[in-house]
Amino acid sequence: MKLNKTGADILSAPSDEKQKKGILAKLCIGAAVILAVCAFVITLTIGNVTTQEGIDPVDEKSTAKIDMYYAQAQTQTTAKQTEKTTVKQTTQKTSTTSKTTKKTTAKTTSKSTAKTTESKAQKTQINASAIQATTQASIASKAAVKPKTTTVTTTTAVKFSAYKMYTNDTLNLRSGAGTSFKKIAEIPFASEITVTGKEANGWYPVKYGDKTGYVFGTYIQKDKPKVAKVTTAKTTQKAAADTTSATEPLKTEFLGSFKITAYCACEKCCGAGATGKTASGTVATQGRTIAASSKFPFGTKLMINGTVYTVEDRGGSVNGNVIDMFFATHQDACNWGVRYLDVYKVL
Questions:
Q1: Which residues, including other chains, have CB under 8 Å from residue 254's CB and lie 6 or more apart?
Q2: Strand pairing partners for 254?
Q3: Residue 205 phi/psi, 5° resolution?
Q4: Could you tell me the CATH number of the domain that includes residue 258?
Q5: What's the predicted TM-score (pTM) here?
Q6: Which of 45-54, 178-187, 229-238, 244-253 has maximum average pLDDT?
Q7: Which contiguous run of DSSP H or E holds residue 325?
Q8: Is residue 298 part of a domain?
Q9: Residue 219 contacts residue 167 (beta carbons within 8 Å)
Q10: Cα dist. 318→3, 259, 298 in Å?
Q11: Is 254 domain-assigned?
């Protein structure tokens, strides 16, 4: 048999240790087989030669050498196989030992974690029980110390405190809260009155001098007017006729509920250059002048909340069921705000 590579080349080629050991074992077995075959051939050759020449076939020295070589070959082969088997068994035992160690470590860790968790839970439960016991003891001690108290609620009627107001126009003092009640007296402009009760539907119970009655809230204010109102007897009669209801029953026509806004003669309400004159040419007067849409001719009498007003002015935002009521001051107009009231046309 002819080999292309030497034994040294074959041993140096593989990089894996196991491959090297396998190749070495195969080479040893091959060498042993070759030695055994050679020994067998030599034995046969010697036997034939000695037989032919009459020589004794049994040469003790030659036979001993052959046996020695054969035994050495078998011993080497057995040693290689034993070494391979030992390495394999050692590897398997090592792998098994590693797996067993991992399992043991995992079990030990799991048991340790479980014990730690259980210990923490027990400590938490003990702390909670201690806190609860402390809280209950504190509540019990407070309950034992704190005496029972009985709360008695007493309802006390709030007494109304009378206050002073001033009239901002000439108005009537009536026996009841409404224009249908009897007129007791006529209160002049800028007169002091005393409010004796709470407002109801725009009417205030008041005391004027030694007389008591009701006046409408539009014509009273907290501060006394600074400018005195000068009127002639004729003007006073006309204003009284325009701002109060006649004693005799009036014939009226119900027009519906209107939005009642308020304005004065200042620049905020009427713009720059306001003179206080109305679109009809009259001087705007509180308690008489109102602005309405063109469907109401100038001079139309409209009764609002028991008071008769005269349509004397117009307005850009005054249309439909909207009426703008004139006030002497901007503050009075702001106090009025916006209201929704029933409106009647005086026939």
A1: 342, 343, 344
A2: 344
A3: -80, 125
A4: 2.40.40.10
A5: 0.33
A6: 178-187
A7: strand 322-326
A8: yes
A9: yes
A10: 127, 10, 14
A11: yes
